[in-house]
Amino acid sequence: MISTDEDVRAAIERELPGVRGDLEQLIRIPGVAFPGFDHAHLDRSAAAVAELLRGCGLEVRIARAGGQPAVIGRRPAPHGAPTVLLYAHHDVQPAGDLALWDSDPFEPVERDGRLYGRGAADDKAGVMAHVAALRALGDDLPVGVVVLVEGEEEYGSDSLDRLITDHVEWLRSDVIVVADSDNWEIGRPALTTSLRGVVSCFVEVSTPHGDVRGGPVRDALTVLSRLLSTLHDDDGEVAVDGLLGRPGTGVDYPPDRLRQEAGVLDGVRLIGNGRLADRLWTKPAIAVLGIDAPPAGRALHALSHRAKAKISVRLAPGDDPASAYAAVCAHLRARVPWGAGLEVSLESSGAPCVVDATGRAYHTARAACTTAWDGTAPVDIGIGGSIPAVAIFQRRFGETAILVTGIEDPYCAAHGPNEGLHLAEFARTCLAEALLLRNLARIPG
Questions:
Q1: What is the pTM of this model?
Q2: Which of these ranges, 103-112, 134-143, 297-306, 366-375, has the smallest mean pLDDT?
């Protein structure tokens, strides 16, 4: 019977080799929910996750609500015990330019204590942290669990709200654990208490189409370049009126640490004003993610009449995706140069949120992290990215405690080339979740 902290630690250590093997199998499945990718791989990864959950003794269903497949597993609570919803996602970001990877992104490989591969950290490690805790506790699991592993988080969780409506009776719980966020640093855990939202949209400009080689008629690429440059002022601050910001937390980033973690080249200045933590977590940010244009090496000596860019707008907690999108559209329409044609279209959006980090569930989570990290207490942090599910859970499940736990570390390169999971931190994360599930059953009421 598992009762002491050392019993849980020993059980996790026993399960970790098998957990890693199953994680490697998941990494090999290139499940990307973006348009233009083979979505059959998402069916494969959903089936693999379903089999893992069945192996933990859960009743499992694969569900859709107009989007990509999600996996829902359920094991009822013992009499009088709480039910905990464990969330993760099995879809991943596209691999991007393969030349930037040191190894095949979908063939896991270990180097210097990290397991490299797309999804190794974000968020197949989150799936396997749940599996590790359930395997370790086994028949001694003292709480009910619902496991929800969605298949389109990286594409905005567009169908998650409908999925919850369709399966709400299965998903009701007393505590929600979202295993899809960051730890503060290697050796220091974190609980995420604020998340930025996101608006992703396309901006397309058009100019007259004809055999023109410059002069009074401007090309679409020049128009687009000038238009995109208006999104920031000379200091790099977002220049779009109507986007909100808010004060940050008491934690701050030393500039040298951020430069090292982000791989900022010598001489490149950090943009914006104010505390770094605010710039990262609680102020809006805009980035140009891609531009459709002729490749420079094959460009003709003729003007482009259409050009298109994808921009990502990160929203501060307290902002609203619809009003933020309207503000961006108004900004662009007011500034498109020389009367060029302009089309702005929304790709996806997700709401920002602030998590109430008080109460018995959070106290239990902090204690579990402190034990798993050998006495190092977690830090409450914000993150600059988005987890649309958190805001959806807040809206749909009211006062249910939501614990956003760390899987990644500052060097994991979650959306970039050479994404890698720090294996020692992963082991601590698995232990912390197993301790949390055991200890949540001890909360009276």
A1: 0.90
A2: 297-306
Q: Where are the alpha helices (DSSP H) in 152-254?
A: 160-166, 168-171, 220-229
Task: Mark whether 76 and 112 lie in a shared domain.
Answer: yes
Count CB-CB contacts under 10 A for residue 9. Answer: 17
Tell whether 345 and 416 lie within a shared domain.
no
Q: Annotated catalytic, 153?
A: yes
344 and 357 share a domain?
A: no
Starting at the edge strand found earlier in the chain, the sheet holding 285-292 runs 285-292, 306-315, 197-206, 341-350
- Residue 157: inside a domain: yes
Q: Return d(Cα 249, Cα 274) in angstroms, integer.
A: 13
Q: Which of 156, 52, 45 lies closest to 91, judged by CA?
A: 45
Verify that 316 and 418 share a domain, yes or no.
no
The average confidence (pLDDT) of the chain is 93
Average pLDDT for 414-437: 97
**Residue 336 belongs to some domain of the structure:** yes
pLDDT of residue 213: 61
CA dist 101 to 13, 16, 133, 147, 383, Å? 31, 27, 31, 32, 25
Task: For residues 187 and 237, state if they share a domain.
Answer: no
Of 2, 365, 434, nearest in space to 193 by CA: 365
Parent domain of 76? 5-195+352-440
Query: How far is 258 from 277, CA to CA, in rounded Å?
Result: 10
Q: Of the candidates 324, 350, 376, which is a domain's last residue?
A: 350
Q: Name, in order, each residue with C-beta under 8 angstroms of 191's C-beta and a sequence gap of 6 or more.
A: 357, 362, 365, 366, 369, 378, 379, 380, 381, 403, 404, 405, 406
Residue 10 lies in a domain: yes
Q: What is the CATH number of the domain that holds 223?
A: 3.30.70.360
Both 51 and 93 in a single domain?
Answer: yes
Catalytic status, residue 91? yes
In 76-195 the beta strands, taken as DSSP E runs, fall at 83-89, 109-111, 114-116, 144-150, 175-182, 190-195
Alpha carbon distance 115, 380 (integer Å) = 26
Q: Catalytic residue, from 15, 91, 152, 182: name it.
A: 91
Report the domain count for the chain. Answer: 2
